[in-house]
Amino acid sequence: MFRIYKITFIFFVDSESKEEKSIRNKILNKMAGNILVKNDQWYQYEKPIWVAKSPDFIAEAVRSNFREITNIAWMKTPFFSRLFNDLKTNCIKSVNLDISKYIGFKNGVLNWQTMEFETEEPEANDLFKLYYFRDFLPYDFQTLDISEIHKQEDLEILVQQNMPAIYNWFSETLENFEFSAIILCFAAAIIKQYKLDRFLYFFGPSNTGKSTAIRFFDKLFISDAVITKQLSDLSSSFGLAEIVETNVRLLVVRDAEGSISGKTVAVLKNLVSNCEPISVSRKFLTSVNFVFSGGIIIASNFSNIFQKTAKGILEERIIPIEFSNVISPENQKELDIFFPESEKSCPFGC
């Protein structure tokens, strides 16, 4: 014998209350201008740069703001979904992070398209950060006249006059100003985001100044802008995830050893070109094709790590600089003595 039951389905419409609407608006207003989406990639403004973030990070930021505003630990799922979608819909998507025109300095901002310097602080205008260059150089901008530089001797005089401590260190370490000029011009090119199509290869015995020369670049940028990798990381599964998720201006291999695989050389070639995309895998996120626009420096105690694999692919991209003068322990000094704060301003009018 079968019994037949009449089942009635009751549908509840999850409408938003006035209180929830007020909370939603407070959260959106608090996060507005600090979050944007470009090509499905989230960014959060962390003074003074935009930093790539995962959807999970943004979701947790939404929950954190909810807890702060309401003092309630748990958020209803439908309310969270609406709030998250509203954030994605309303955050500014039109900002092209690749063509934003400003570089930040301690004393103002440089419009790199017009090469005009503006003394207004970035935080003085809330809308300014929406067009920010994603970069900040942690020193004052200094304008120098470079119109009279027509040959290497003119450049040497300019550097010697405006950067005496830096000039002296490079001169004593490398002896040949031509090498010093290459390093300083390479630094200026990274700052101006030129397509370098070259990378620096420092080689020579231990204690010859290779690491100190790289630390000169460390001092030119904020910490997140310089990352250190092993050569094997370039071809490993997630070894390059950081270049997508942070604003990397310089990738450094500080102690390269042994031979280099063909796969690593191929990846390095694409990285150096500044125009060829590479596939970057990321944990728990989809892979992306990414064009790296920064510089690369590789340092090694050996001169021949590219001997077998560089031919035809990298031989025209390498700028080898030999460090041959061993620095005795008593002559090794604090970094600030070599590269004082007052001399870090770009010497080439950049």
Automatic annotation (TrEMBL):
Cited Gene3D superfamilies: P-loop containing nucleotide triphosphate hydrolases
Residue ranges of domain SF3 helicase in the record: 175-336
Keywords assigned: ATP-binding, Chloroplast, Nucleotide-binding, Plastid
One Pfam family linked to the record: DUF5906
InterPro entries according to UniProt: Helicase_SF3_DNA-vir, NrS-1_pol-like_helicase, P-loop_NTPase
GO-annotated molecular function: ATP binding
Identification of the protein by name: SF3 helicase domain-containing protein
